[in-house]
Write a structure and sequence with these properties.
The chain is an all-beta fold. Helix content is about 0%, strand content about 25%.
Length: about 230
């Protein structure tokens, strides 16, 4: 599991203000344990700052993860959808962004921070979400993804950094739509699970059929039918 981005508080240890870190993505990987061998990813929600609420005004909820395009975040009750993690775009491949004092190190992120406390971290996913870097706002969720016939696979090298945008590695995705690992009937349900991105595999039944039959041998292949559910909550 890749953890979500960290929350920060720059007012000092004695201050009671606080904000939530982003949730961690859950993934299934084939052949190797790295980001470029993920075949199913359940993205997680972004952290929130809800210390202050006035009437129906939401101070700063984090965006839901769990869909192929994740949700943005709220600042003083207003939804910001400028930077949404999806199949080819986000803070970085895998990690959600950690809140930082002077804004994002990613040129596509929020370049100037606001408020010295209650800055939440973003959710991780196929691509992680962006942090809002705002003391009165939340951070974005991470996107979900599955290697299916309709999957959008980023071309060329895909760069992965840590949650503070320090370079980890850059390489192409390890599979293609012709490799025989495709999943079908994948459903995403964003924003209904609290905590990290949740991936549910339900076995419906097994199918047994002969793959080789002759006078002297009888071989059988076993296939499992399953449904995948992505459940996440900010």
């Amino acid at each position: 599991m890749v953890k979500g981005g960290y929350a920060t508080n720059y007012k000092g240890a004695g201050n009671n203000d606080g904000a939530g870190s982003g949730g961690g993505q859950t993934a299934v990987k084939f052949l190797s344990n790295d980001l470029w061998h993920r075949v199913i990813v359940a993205g997680a929600g972004g952290g929130s700052d809800d210390e202050y609420t006035s009437g129906t005004k939401n101070d700063g909820s984090g965006g839901s993860g769990g869909d192929f395009t994740a949700q943005g975040y709220w600042i003083n009750g207003i939804l910001n959808s400028d930077r949404l993690a999806n199949s080819t775009f986000g803070f970085t491949f895998g990690s959600g962004e950690s809140a930082q004092k002077d804004g994002s190190k990613n040129s596509k992120g929020v370049q100037s921070g606001s408020g010295y406390s209650d800055r939440p971290g973003a959710g991780s996913g196929w691509f992680g979400g962006f942090a809002g870097h705002n003391g009165d706002g939340g951070s974005g969720g991470g996107s979900s993804w599955a290697l299916s016939k309709n999957a959008i696979i980023p071309q060329g090298n895909i760069t992965a950094t840590d949650s503070f945008y320090n370079l980890n590695d850059s390489r192409p995705y390890s599979f293609s739509l012709d490799d025989g690992y495709l999943f079908s009937d994948v459903k995403t349900y964003p924003g209904i699970w609290e905590g990290n991105g949740r991936l549910v595999i339900t076995i419906l039944d097994s199918i047994i059929y002969p793959s080789c039959v002759s006078i002297n041998c009888s071989h059988f292949s076993y296939f499992l039918l399953f449904i995948l559910f992505f459940e996440t909550h900010s």
